[in-house]
From TrEMBL:
Full protein name: UNC93-like protein MFSD11
Compartments it resides in: Membrane
Species for this entry: Papilio xuthus
InterPro entries in the cross-refs: Ion_channel_UNC-93 (IPR010291), MFS_trans_sf (IPR036259), UNC-93-like_regulator (IPR051617)
Record's keyword annotation contains Membrane: yes
Bilayer topology annotation: Multi-pass membrane protein
Similarity section: Belongs to the unc-93 family.
Spans through the membrane: 7-28, 48-65, 77-94, 100-124, 136-157, 169-189, 235-255, 275-294, 306-325, 345-369, 381-400, 406-425
Keywords: Glycoprotein, Membrane, Transmembrane, Transmembrane helix
Pfam families tied to this protein: UNC-93
Amino acid sequence: MERKFFNVILLGFGFMFVFTAFQTMGNIEKTILDSITQDDPSFTGDGYTSLAIIYATLAICNWLAPSVITITGPRGAMLIGAFTYLFFIVTFLFPRTWLLYVASVLIGAGAAAIWTGQGNYLTLNSDADTISRNSGIFWAMLQCSLFFGNLFVFIKFQGKTHIDLDTRNVVFGALTAVCALGIVFLLLLRPIRRPQVLDDVKVKFQETDVVNHEDDGPMEAFKGALKLFCTRDMMFLSCTFIYTGVELSFFSGVYSPSIGFTLSMGENAKQLVGLSGVFIGMGEVLGGALFGILGSKTTRWGRDPIVIMGYIIHVTSFFLIFINLPNVAPFGDTMETSYINPSPYLAMFCSFLLGFGDACFNTQIYSILGGNYSDNSTSAFALFKFTQSLAAAACFFYSSRALLSVQLGVLAVLASLGTAAFCRVEWAARSRARAAALEVIDDKVIPDTHLAENALHYD
């Protein structure tokens, strides 16, 4: 297997196991903490508050991540971040309110390091021809974490209306072991150096002359991130990032618990929390695998059709959720109903749609950042995670107060804005690439007609 592609596979396995632990925990955290509070009234930790702290800290620390990576390198940053995920999972074996929130701060800082390092490392192991393929494959492997982790939870929560201490400890212990296995895979990652020369078309293709070389020092990396954030294309892409952050917090921390709180779903409502995560994971994996296999095709066709498809899928799922779940479902157990009698089958179908639509957005974001900002990937991915995490934190803060209909309305508006902004950047980049290719041809930099035609495919 080609060395760089093998690195992508190792990266995928590492993140799959680390995030089997974390994403499963995020999906069940609200439900688990409510059960802990019932057993121990002195424990007052709240799942939404914990997740809000995580993403708020992640947003702040993303500004420092490029500087950290200049010191540790992407592999070192990912390892540091992975250990904070392990610590976070372990703390659930010893439930203390203060410890929950301290661990939430630490994992937020670690997440900034692991995700910025991941974006940089994925870019270093990709080129214009493989970035879409590698992004799709990585995303599919990552989202297998939702499938395996939540399938385990589904089995363990079967027939339970209250998650008892023994069940909780078995789940936490298993997730701790899985997270440690992910760290082992990250330790196996091999170093790779960034290519030193960009081709003429690539240089002309970029929106501005903002270049933050990966070898710059910490202060230069920070200044480069600020400068990149103020560019026109990055400002537009931030609208898309904001939407992915809000929908991430909704499907990962609000929607599945809302199903469990809808007691009219039946006696196994709590069990459906894990099953919902399984169906979200199935949608994510299918989307990532599909776009990975079709990576070379999507590069030629453009990324906008996939994002538009994700938009249509998500808006459809929002409407179905609106008519299926009661308005007060995010707040706790309720016997209320919505416009139809709550259907577990429809709820699982919506879970699948949320996952598949999320894959549409995120695989194309990874592709556009890795393709358009390959010489500035550390800052580009840090800004992506900063904006996404800030939006996710805001969503978790209002999730415990806003009715379901309000949350779905916010999602629909942001989806429209985010899709329009992404398409605008994609179309503008395509136009610049054609102009750059023609200019290069005129300058006789690319005398070969076949090469010139390939250059018109801007990525």
